[in-house]
Specification:
single chain; SPW_0924 family protein; 1 helix; 44 residues; mainly alpha; SPW_0924-like
Length: 44
């Protein structure tokens, strides 16, 4: 019985977390103006 109660509590916590993140929406911000380096620099 304890395992069932723990599972129900975990499910409720996970659902609350999902609903909170959904309510907040995507994070506001922009992209960096600098491009990322995708290759190593040339060897001297």
């Amino acid at each position: 019985m304890r395992a069932l109660a723990a599972a129900a509590a975990g499910l409720a916590a996970a659902l609350a977390l999902v609903l909170t993140v959904t309510a907040l929406g995507p994070p506001s911000g922009g992209t960096s103006p600098k491009p990322l380096l995708t290759s190593p620099p040339a060897h001297p």
